[in-house]
Structures are given as structure tokens and as C-alpha cells.
Specification:
With 153 residues, the protein is an alpha+beta fold. It has helices at residues 4-14, 17-32, 45-51, 96-107, 138-141, and strands at residues 36-39, 59-67, 112-121, 125-133.
């Protein structure tokens, strides 16, 4: 007999048709949203819990959008402003997951990332959920099971 989290991970691995249709609708909405969005609850509860997520104050879940494709983009020849070049979107030795974590850290510098996991992808973007924790929140400080680096506490 398997538990709830085992069933959830199996559901995400096998992806039944209902889940595919639901995700297709969600992706249409997500494309219109900003790149880093704070969400109420994690979409993949099994993965979030394995990273250390608890449903209490001090824990923050962010959905981060990262553009797909390799890091080596040809530099456009015609003139345009540096922001619109699209050359420095990806770094050489940084995975898209790490890139999502870095973008979340840039948006919320007071929070500490516990980890991230893949949620969805389409032809242009990949979405990751990043689990972050506020190391100075009283409920997090009193949590003995959470092990944060000493310099953060």
C-alpha cells in the first residue's frame, strides 16, 4: 500500500490526459504573468515536501519562468539597446534550475532558497517552483527540523 506522496509523484510521472489538458490551460495563463510569481501553495506537494517545505508562515513558494534554449545566441548585427539583444539570457555553467533559483534570490533577497523543481514547459519557456524560507521568521527559528547554514540564522 502506497501513501499520498507516492501517488502524487506517480501522477506527475505518468501524466494522465486530464492533467495534460489542465496544464495546457494553466500555461496559457502563466505566459501572461511576470517571470517570478509568488503562489499560495506548491503545485507538486510531494517534491516541495522533499525539499523541506512546510505549510506554515515563513515559507514562500515562487513560480519562476526561464526562457528555453542554449546559452550561445548569435549577436544581432543591427543596432539596438543592450536589454533587447537577448544574448546574455543564459550562462554557460548554470543550469536552468539554478538560473530560476538565482532569479528568485534576486527578486526576494531576504529569503533563503531550499531548492527548486520543474513544473511545466512549453516551446519557449520552462517553469520551476522555488521553495524559499525566511530565516528570521519566528516560526522558522523555532523549527528544529530545518537545517539552515549558520551564517544565515
Amino acid at each position: 500500500m502506497t501513501g499520498l506522496y507516492a501517488h502524487l509523484s506517480k501522477l506527475w510521472r505518468e501524466k494522465p490526459e486530464e492533467l495534460k489538458q489542465l496544464m495546457r490551460k494553466r500555461l496559457i495563463e502563466w505566459r501572461k504573468q511576470p517571470a517570478v510569481v509568488r503562489v499560495e501553495k506548491p503545485l507538486r506537494l510531494d517534491r516541495a515536501r522533499s525539499l523541506g517545505y512546510r505549510d506554515k508562515q515563513g515559507y514562500v513558494v515562487l513560480r519562476v519562468r526561464v526562457r528555453r534554449g542554449g546559452f550561445a545566441r548569435p549577436r544581432p548585427r543591427s543596432g539596438r539597446r543592450p536589454k533587447a539583444l537577448g544574448v546574455v539570457k543564459h550562462k554557460v555553467n548554470v543550469s536552468m534550475k539554478e538560473e530560476a533559483i538565482n532569479r528568485a534570490k534576486k527578486k526576494y533577497p531576504n529569503l533563503y532558497p531550499l531548492g527548486a523543481y520543474w513544473v511545466a514547459s512549453d516551446a519557449l519557456y520552462k517553469w520551476y517552483e522555488v521553495i524559499m524560507v525566511d530565516p528570521h521568521h519566528p516560526s522558522v527559528i523555532s523549527d528544529r527540523n530545518l537545517s539552515l547554514p549558520a551564517k544565515i540564522r
